[in-house]
Write a structure and sequence with these properties.
alpha+beta; Beta-Lactamase; 4 domains; five-stranded antiparallel sheet; 20 helices; 15 strands; 21% strand
């Protein structure tokens, strides 16, 4: 074996032999040239005769035994090369090609064993067998091969990959390179080995290893033919991989297109492509246009002015802004379009301006999302907020919302909840009536204020209200509290409140309050008047009875005074009785006047004068 195959890299007419789209005639020599060779070769014997004749060797020459052996090896190598060419043309997959090449080398080339292995690009740099054929070919899987510069990687296969050159072991029994695997190889009848790197773009990715049962195999001419096989194999592997990658890419593209089509057709929005500008016509519309607007996509595409003519006139100004949008910058606008049934649909147009590569024209690509229900909900919410605001502002009672930040844990004792709420609570919202109840000019003067600024929780009435509120499940109705206004005056409120509990925390309180301070004063006055009226009625009854008694006393007193003579002592006593009776009569008249709610105007009346005037 010439030393050049141990030191010189494998011959390669074109380092890009494995590029399927740029293959040269030399790279396909294992297929094109061998097709012509095979057509003129009917059998190994005729092929041998052809080679002998071309070399000028006579079949009867007595000294040609060594040459004939060499020629037979070359002939087998040619047969193997031809068979490999057919395998390259017929193989349907990479693994099928690898196995067929190994089978051809053994069956047609007459070699003991052939195997193909790939170089793993990992830290261990293993040489991984992928196909083999021949006598006890599982040998490759039983031994450990690497392509690193280690004992396991310094054999012919590892060296061929690592150093990117052909590596030949002419005698397995004596070559130190093969020492780690010698015993196992000799048991299987492997006498010589050649390892040919498989290259793509000049870099090795695997190895073709051929084992011979004859020492000294793999001379230069045979090596050239086997090199052709390795080059053709590498090209075939690359071509199949390219085809498979192309098929995978095509399949992935087809699958992606199908998924996109399904997405476009199933998403509840109209996907579109249109010429940019307010008057641009549609180029594409997804079928959802019929679901959302009631028009067929074909009808919309056939009418260049469809979009503009179905746009609400009040929203056409928004559409005209499209002419000013920048390329590549997403935009979003909302407008109304007329449905086929005459109703209006609110659409949100989310799109981007792109430039068509072929024509340089501006195109709009986007989606029209039906937001009609959202607009209705927004309108309903707006109306609800307006009603709430109107109720809040026009109500004659105070309306408020208190928030607690952080919220009050409901598992605390009642008194701790009250203290927590007073500390963290604030007036989040109220109307002007509520603010004026606390002596403020308007709601903005009270909103945001902490509860401790205006609540008097030390008052027993207010303390009781809060306890009843919490114990009643954070709701209460028509219970009074005692508050303090900005001037320090105590006020009485009647409250109805309900709390909001979220995840076991008291987060807010809604309520309606009424200032009943003046009414409480009026009620107190009414109670006092009622008490006085009852006393007056009692006094009137007593006065009538007492007046009757006094009439008897005073009448008999007058009679006794008239019947007395000069007994001054008795007269003085009767005078005392009469004066006491007069005072009692005066008190009786006052009681009667009180019971009748009359103003007392006491006046001395001389009956003698009255009688004299009458007479």
């Amino acid at each position: 074996m010439p030393e050049r195959y141990r030191q010189v890299p494998m011959k390669q007419e074109n380092p890009e032999v494995n590029q399927p789209t740029e293959a040269s005639p030399d790279e396909r020599s294992g297929m094109s040239r061998l097709s012509a060779t095979n057509s003129s070769r009917s059998s190994p014997t005729s092929s041998l005769n052809t080679i002998e004749s071309s070399l000028g060797i006579s079949p009867a020459s007595p000294d040609d035994s060594g040459i004939k052996k060499e020629l037979r090896r070359l002939n087998r190598a040619l047969h193997a090369l031809s068979g490999c060419s057919r395998a390259l043309a017929q193989a349907g997959s990479e693994q099928e090609l690898l196995q067929q090449i190994c089978d051809v080398i053994v069956e047609m080339g007459g070699y003991r064993m052939a195997g193909i292995a790939y170089a793993d690009q990992d830290e261990e740099k293993r040489v991984r067998p992928v196909a083999h054929a021949g006598h006890e070919s599982e040998y490759l899987e039983a031994i450990q091969l690497k392509w690193s510069d280690t004992p396991a990687g310094r054999g012919p296969a590892g060296t061929a990959i690592r150093e990117n050159r052909i590596c030949v072991v002419a005698d397995v029994a004596s070559d130190p390179m093969f020492a780690p695997w010698r015993e196992s190889a000799l048991k299987r009848g492997y006498a010589a080995v050649i390892a040919l790197p498989l290259r793509v773009a000049g870099s090795p990715f695997g190895v073709l290893a051929i084992y011979s049962q004859q020492v000294g195999s793999f001379e230069s001419a045979e090596v050239d033919l086997l090199t052709e096989i390795a080059n053709s194999l590498a090209y075939g592997i690359t071509a199949i991989r390219s085809q498979e990658e192309g098929r995978r890419a095509t399949s992935a593209l087809r699958e992606a297109e199908e998924k996109y089509r399904q997405l476009v057709e199933q998403v509840p929005a109209i996907s579109y492509v249109a010429e940019a500008g307010a008057l641009g016509c549609f180029r594409y519309l997804s079928p959802q246009v019929q679901t959302i607007l009631g028009y067929r996509a074909e009808d919309c595409l056939s009418d260049p002015r469809f979009w503009w003519e179905h746009l609400n006139p009040a929203d056409q100004g928004v559409a005209l802004l499209e002419d000013t949008w920048e390329e590549g910058r997403p935009f979003r606008v909302e407008y109304r379009m007329r449905r086929q049934d005459g109703s209006e649909a609110w659409l949100r147009d989310e799109a981007v301006i792109v430039i068509e590569p072929q024509t340089g024209r501006r195109l709009t690509r986007g989606m029209l999302i039906d937001i009609t229900e959202r607009k209705r909900a927004e309108e309903a919410l707006r109306e609800s907020e307006e009603r709430y605001r109107s109720f809040l502002e026009q109500s004659s009672e105070g309306i408020f919302r208190m928030e607690y930040d952080p919220p009050v844990p409901c598992d605390l004792p009642v008194n701790q909840q009250i203290a927590w709420g007073l500390k963290t609570g604030y007036m989040a919202e109220c109307n002007d009536v509520m603010a004026k109840m606390y002596g403020r000019a308007s709601a903005k003067d009270l909103m945001g204020k902490p509860l401790s600024d205006f609540l008097v929780l030390k008052d027993p009435l207010t303390q009781q209200l809060m306890e009843n509120f919490i114990n009643g499940g954070y709701r209460i109705a028509d219970q009074e509290s005692r508050e303090m206004d900005s001037s320090g005056q105590k006020r009485t409120f009647r409250n109805t409140m309900v709390g909001t509990i979220i995840d076991g925390n008291w987060v807010r309180t809604w309520g309606i309050s009424q200032d009943v301070t003046e009414r409480k004063h009026l009620e107190e006055q009414l109670r006092n008047a009622q008490q006085l009226e009852a006393i007056g009625r009692l006094a009137g009854g007593v006065a009538h009875d007492f007046n009757n008694i006094l009439s008897i006393i005073m009448g008999h007193g007058e009679l006794l005074l008239g019947s007395l003579g000069g007994d001054n002592r008795a007269r003085n006593g009767l005078e005392q009785i009469r004066r006491a009776a007069d005072r009692a009569a005066s008190l009786t008249q006052q009681l009667l006047a009180f019971s009748r709610k009359q103003v007392l105007l006491p006046k001395v009346l001389d009956l003698n004068e009255v009688v004299a005037d009458v007479l």
